[in-house]
Amino acid sequence: MRSMIHFAAAALAVLALLSVLPAVADDAVDPVADASAFQSYFTRKFPHVKLEDFVNGPYSMNEDMRRQWQEIEQFPPYEFALEAGKEMFAKPFRNGKTYADCFPNQGIGIRQNYPIFDEKQGKVVTLELALNQCRLANGEAPLSYVKDEMAALTAYMAYTSRGKPFDIKIPGDPRALAAYQDGKRYFYTRRGQLNFSCASCHVQTAGERIRAEVLAPALGILNAMPIYRSEWSGMGTISRRFITCNSQTRGVPLDAQDDEYRDLEYYLSYLGNGLPISGPGARP
Amino acid sequence: MRTMPLSDGRLSAQSKPERGARKTMRILALALASLLLIAGGAALAAGSEAGFRAAYAAAEAANQEAGRLRDQWTTTVTALAEARKSADSGDFDHATALAKQAEALAKASIFQAESEKEAWKNSEIH
What we know:
The complex is a heterodimer of chains A (284) and B (126). Chain A is mostly helical. Chain A folds into two domains: 29-68 and 171-283, Cytochrome c-like domain (Cytochrome Bc1 Complex, Chain D, domain 2); 79-159, Cytochrome c-like domain (Cytochrome Bc1 Complex, Chain D, domain 2). Chain A has ten helices and seven strands. Chain A has helices at residues 2-27, 31-45, 63-72, 79-90, 127-137, 148-159, 174-188, 198-204, 238-248, 259-271; strands at residues 116-118, 123-125, 209-210, 213-214, 227-229, 234-236, 281-283. In chain A, α4 crosses α6 and α7 (174-188) crosses α10 (259-271). The termini of chain A are far apart. By secondary structure, chain B is mainly alpha-helical. Chain B has helices spanning 16-68, 74-88, 92-119, and strands spanning 3-5, 11-13. In chain B, β1 (3-5) and β2 (11-13) form a beta hairpin. In chain B, α1 runs parallel beside α3. The longest helix of chain B has 53 residues, at 16-68.
């Protein structure tokens, strides 16, 4: 009798374990599988768009807009920022050092590697954050994350990486995987009174119109950053883009470079791995 | 000249002291009524301000909870600011209504944040 009870208890335990296992498997974090599924989703949804063309956002979705953009690119509106960024990048700080001293390869052609997961700091470090950390390390005041100087600097650095594929690494550090997963959660989480997630616009309705605008696909959306936006009448960084998106859903935006935004950038950039940097860009 | 009914049914003219007493009583009653009206109005206004303060505190607490969940809504913030503005101008009824609206919005944002803790997975691309 006792052995029967033991057997029944063991059988129950195995059954319980089996019922839990699929749930655990569902929650397993697999960035490689995510990126593959993400890219397949967009290439299936837009079979006429070449994979590398997704970095051109709405212009890859709409032929009329594409023609307008090609004309705009004859005299790109980000050109002034690009020139300013180049000058700023080369100008020494008061201690005589420059931005180049803070980055691998003197900061040239490295934009495709950012964000990185910095194991020493235990967090995601975006290019914008790295630039301000460089300034602070050299006794300079940090720049605003949303526009002007920061947009100009990142525009120049992106320009030196044009055509290079995004190459975001997720090291073995479990904190890096957690940051990636947190970024994914943020991307799909609905927020604001309009109850929109990033995915509502840039996955589920990518390519469709919202008022006069064509919604850019999430795939490759950060490859073109920073951007000159006609709506802003100026340049804007990735921070500005995230903050604006949150406000547009009637959500109170977080502070630029808060954990959630850096993790979101990490996640989205990783999904763009293999797609070329096209920044700085111009958008309506 | 005022008249009063007598016990035998005839009407008689009122005496001067009686008229004076009635007049004094009327003035006293009027003053008392005014005092009651003023005191009542003040009590009503004080009650309305207290009501606003309670409604505003509840709304602010809910909005802080939404902030803890990283999901505040701009409409909540606007409603709270407008409630404060109305209260500053002395319109406590409107201010209370706005504070209650802010609380409802904040509670909706909390519900959203709580439900999205799991619901986001339904949209994920696999």
